[in-house]
């Protein structure tokens, strides 16, 4: 009896705000293969409504044959549910959380029925210098870079040439033999689908302790007050993201990574703020 081929698994890693969600969106919208994307939650992936065929429980079926699954409590359970599907995907892409070591996530790709194709780790050109030197999270950043089989510097259009050069130097010192590209999400999604298989190397697994808190009822009179509120977060808060309603009823998408704060208009429903903090 011929054994069914194992499904290749790619892990997308990178520190908070590196652009993983943007890449996931591009993978789903431009797919030419049946791809199963596993994300931490649907709320962060703004899938084009015209692509959605059906949604049930923790799975969204897309019209192009792809599926998007939310991890929930168990990544292993999600992968087993994928194997139970009548029509198997040709590739599985797993989004690691922004504070996870991709090497630890990749261990699940060795479940029978799958094989690990590689880890693609994104590095934010605008935040990498600050993150890599941070005494609290610098180790997490280094472990993510060292777990990569392909490194991609993102947001290069928002950084100066000198900063990009410094980022290249830091990343290359951490992973001197790992391919490093400066690319857009569109180009990267195509590139990573053609990532060659590799022999896994042993990567030590070390965890920094993080906790997640959701502020369900956040309100502000205007953007200025909201900005001031975000600025006053303690330094232990390494990431904040969510949708907040202002006093006039307008909603704002809020993202804070380190000292960088972004506030933009949105029509999406309020979610509150999710904070990721060092314990």
UniProtKB/TrEMBL annotation:
Keywords, comma-separated and alphabetical: Chaperone, Hydrolase, Nucleotide-binding
Keyword Hydrolase annotated: yes
Catalytic activity reported: GTP + H2O = GDP + phosphate + H(+)
Pfam family, one: CobW_C
Keyword hit for Nucleotide-binding: yes
Domain CobW/HypB/UreG nucleotide-binding as annotated: residue spans: 8-179
GO CC annotations on file: cytoplasm
PANTHER family from the UniProt entry: COBW DOMAIN-CONTAINING PROTEIN, COBW-RELATED
Family: Belongs to the SIMIBI class G3E GTPase family. ZNG1 subfamily.
Protein name: Unannotated protein
Organism, scientific name: freshwater metagenome
Classification lineage: unclassified sequences, metagenomes, ecological metagenomes
